TrEMBL record:
Localization per record: Cytoplasm
Family: Belongs to the AB hydrolase superfamily. MetX family.
Record's protein name: Homoserine O-acetyltransferase
UniProt GO MF annotations: homoserine O-acetyltransferase activity
Subunit text: Homodimer.
Pathway the protein acts in: Amino-acid biosynthesis; L-methionine biosynthesis via de novo pathway; O-acetyl-L-homoserine from L-homoserine: step 1/1
EC category: transferase
Assigned EC number: 2.3.1.31
Source organism: Mucilaginibacter boryungensis
């Protein structure tokens, strides 16, 4: 299925006060909005994903999966600044006729959600039955549930947080240091910073998996003194991202993640979370070193109508993309449950 494009041909004001003169949003839809208009499942994707959720979240989304186009109207929008159809640093600035590159304005999670809202209006989606996302996608879903509580009925937050941590910001800054150490990053060409992007992705991978994951999957089988499996894996995964992404989008999106703070200009995080009216499921991964389980436990305690599930995953943070059978069991159980106050009985192991 090809990416659809929504063009918003008015100035798009950002939280910073700066503007994009025009905005394009790439998105995918699957299925049909029913007569009751109560079958919308909106997915917010993570850092380097795209809007084709049936491609990258197989096992949870698909023709034969829990969220399927036969029953649900599934929407996923490519996020602002990404490279898959939405206005980004490689887009042409109408004011100059040249790509933005590093003149692209800084923006935040709230700006991404504001773009989602424009698309929802365009699609005639007044009510979202299930809004969900993991990692950066969870940050978007959480923001949306605060910005527009009446539109969201059920909220599913996976491996995410209320405010990006100093630990997470440190990882992102280390990746940006890698990008800026590549002198081609300042050449303003589509492939500028490619070597830096490869190194940045290698840094990120360490936070996505765990000591145990590498110990099992990259364990040496010989006594060689070079060509280690873990080293080859880092190089392979770094190049894999270079082949499908660009350094400028990555630079800005890591900064977007750093900006995440639901309490900004809302009298603090706890006050902001207390305004959520959606029935909420928070899913944490016990082995996650990037978004530790304490961050999901905090969300569970502060959101009024919340349930908490904790997964034991071999894959660390990436478990939210891989352990789809567990996610299916947890989410389906939650959506059948009438949450009155707090429930914490949706435990799963992998």
């Amino acid at each position: 299925m090809n990416t659809q494009i929504f063009k918003y041909q008015q100035p798009f004001e950002l939280e910073s006060g700066k503007q994009l003169l025009e905005l394009e949003i790439g998105f995918h839809t699957y299925g049909t909005l029913n007569k009751q208009r109560n079958n919308v499942v909106w997915v917010c994707h993570a850092l380097t994903a795209n809007s084709d959720v049936l491609d990258w979240w197989k096992g949870l989304f698909g023709e034969n999966d829990y969220f399927n186009p036969e029953e649900h109207y599934i929407v996923c929008a490519n996020i602002l600044g990404s490279t898959y159809g939405t206005t980004s640093p490689l887009s042409v600035n109408p004011a100059t006729g040249l790509p933005y590159y590093l003149t692209f304005p800084d923006y935040t999670i709230r700006d991404i959600v504001k773009a989602h809202q424009l698309l929802a209006n365009h699609l005639g989606v007044d009510s979202i039955e299930v809004l969900l996302g993991g990692s950066l996608g969870g940050q978007q879903a959480l923001e949306w549930s605060i910005m527009e509580p009446n539109r969201i009925k059920n909220l599913v937050l996976i491996a995410t947080n209320a405010r990006h941590s100093p630990w997470g910001i440190a990882f992102n800054e280390s990746q940006r240091l890698a990008l800026s150490a590549d002198t081609t990053f300042y050449n303003n060409t589509p492939d500028g910073g490619s070597k830096g992007l490869k190194a940045a992705r290698s840094i990120a991978l360490i936070s996505y998996r765990t000591y145990k994951t590498y110990g099992v999957t990259q364990q040496e089988q010989t006594d060689e003194l070079h060509n280690y499996r873990a080293a080859s894996y880092q190089n392979y995964q770094g190049q894999k991202l270079v082949n499908r992404f660009n350094a400028y989008s990555y630079w800005y999106l890591t900064k977007v993640m750093d900006s995440h703070n639901v309490g900004r200009n809302r009298q603090g995080v706890e006050r902001a979370l207390s305004t959520i009216t959606a029935k909420t499921l928070v899913i944490g991964i016990k082995s996650d070193v990037l978004f530790p389980i304490e961050e999901q436990q905090y969300l569970f305690r502060q959101i009024p109508k919340a349930a908490l599930a904790e997964i034991d995953s071999f894959y660390g943070h990436d478990g939210f993309l891989i352990d789809t059978e567990n996610l299916t069991n947890i989410i389906s159980s939650f959506l059948k449950t009438d949450v009155k106050g707090k429930i914490i009985d949706l435990q799963q192991t992998a």
